[in-house]
UniProtKB/TrEMBL annotation:
InterPro entries: CheY-like_superfamily (IPR011006), OmpR/PhoB-type_DNA-bd (IPR001867), Sig_transdc_resp-reg_receiver (IPR001789), WalR-like (IPR039420), WH-like_DNA-bd_sf (IPR036388). GO terms for molecular function: cis-regulatory region sequence-specific DNA binding; identical protein binding; phosphorelay response regulator activity. The modification 4-aspartylphosphate is found at D58. It comes from Caldicellulosiruptor changbaiensis. It is found in: Cytoplasm. Keywords: Cytoplasm, DNA-binding, Phosphoprotein, Transcription, Transcription regulation, Two-component regulatory system. Residues 131-229 form the OmpR/PhoB-type domain. Member of the two-component regulatory system KdpD/KdpE involved in the regulation of the kdp operon. Upon phosphorylation by KdpD, functions as a transcription regulator by direct binding to promoter regions of target genes to positively regulate their expression. Its main location: cytoplasm. This is Transcriptional regulatory protein KdpE. Residues 131-229 bind DNA.
């Protein structure tokens, strides 16, 4: 599904003026309406008044940690959040995603990649239809009937495989962390059993991917989790 760039409002929360200027010029050139905030308090206020379609957030803010800003936003908003940060540690990425961020891009970044991540996050908002049917190219997932189609072929999944794919489909385009998947499928006691996921993800790929060794849909985010695209 295509998402028009026109009338899409982007809120940039970053204390670096150079980054804000770069993003404003680049995103405005693609038709986005951009609002800037230099700190967490200002960003939260603009999130209320500007009503952005997507938020780009730095974690290292002068008045608050970006993780706390994400948590506060998620108390009342489901607006997609893309973290843009110099922090490269897996723990930082996992913490941001578990707190409610939709995606994570490290600085320095390529504008082409960031634009693609923005388009993916915006598409995610409209992927689930009222009939609860999700289509990702040749992969079709009907959540009402639990029917999975790859092209014209119906795919049979085990109950556990289906639950994993359903969670990823409902968050299509977003990174779902190992912890999130394990908690939702097996329960809180299994949050560290990452080997469970590796086994089941491999089985799902054999059923939905043309070439399981080079997946197009079910992508691994090393050390963090998985993304369905």
């Amino acid at each position: 599904m295509q998402v028009s760039d026109k009338n899409v409002k982007v809120l940039v929360i970053d204390d670096e003026a150079q980054i804000r200027n770069l993003l404003r010029m680049a995103l405005s050139g693609y038709g986005y309406e951009v609002k800037e905030a230099a700190n967490g308090k200002e960003g939260l206020n603009f999130a209320l008044t500007f009503k952005p379609d997507i938020i780009i957030l730095d974690l290292g803010l002068p008045d608050a940690d970006g993780i706390e800003v994400i948590k506060k936003l998620r108390e009342w908003s489901s607006t997609p959040i893309i973290v843009l940060s110099v922090r490269e540690q897996e723990n930082d990425k996992i913490m941001a995603l578990d707190s409610g961020a939709d995606d994570y891009v490290t600085k320095p970044f390529g504008m082409g990649e960031l634009l693609a991540r923005i388009r993916t996050a915006l598409r995610h908002r409209t992927m689930v239809t009222p009939q609860m049917s999700i289509e990702l190219d040749d992969l079709k997932i009907d959540l009402a009937t639990r029917k999975i189609m790859v092209g014209e072929k119906e795919v049979k999944l085990t109950p556990t495989e289906y639950e994993i794919l359903k969670i990823l489909a409902l968050n299509a385009g977003k990174v779902v962390t190992h912890k999130q998947l394990l908690k939702e499928v097996w329960g809180p006691m299994y949050e560290n059993e990452v080997h469970y996921l590796r086994i089941y993800i491999a089985q799902i790929r054999k059923k939905i991917e043309a070439d399981p060794s080079r997946p197009r849909h079910l992508i691994t985010e090393p050390g963090v989790g998985y993304r369905l695209i």
